[in-house]
From TrEMBL:
It is a peripheral membrane protein. Pfam families: UCR_14kD. GO terms for cellular component: mitochondrial inner membrane; respiratory chain complex III. GO terms for biological process: mitochondrial electron transport, ubiquinol to cytochrome c. Gene3D superfamilies: Cytochrome b-c1 complex subunit 7. Component of the ubiquinol-cytochrome c oxidoreductase (cytochrome b-c1 complex, complex III, CIII), a multisubunit enzyme composed of 3 respiratory subunits cytochrome b, cytochrome c1 and Rieske protein, 2 core protein subunits, and additional low-molecular weight protein subunits. The complex exists as an obligatory dimer and forms supercomplexes (SCs) in the inner mitochondrial membrane with cytochrome c oxidase (complex IV, CIV). It comes from Magallana gigas (Pacific oyster). Its main location: mitochondrion. Keywords: Electron transport, Membrane, Mitochondrion, Mitochondrion inner membrane, Respiratory chain, Transport. Belongs to the UQCRB/QCR7 family. It is found in: Mitochondrion inner membrane. This is Cytochrome b-c1 complex subunit 7.
Amino acid sequence: RDDMRRETPILKEALKRISRQDLEARNFRIARATVLYNAKIELPREQWTELDEDKLYLTPHVEAIKKELKERKDFEKSK
């Protein structure tokens, strides 16, 4: 599910914080999806990721960044 996030400044920052391995795996999945979509081919069912196996690798970073931005905003207000 994290591969489907819309690109925002928060997502760009989160991508800087993930491991190289996670970033390469993400890029591979997106490239594979693009190739399959353009070729009008469906990914074989045995290669689908089950929902309970889906690793949310970006969500913790996105939430941390949102928290940091809120704290920064609150700090600026309190000056």
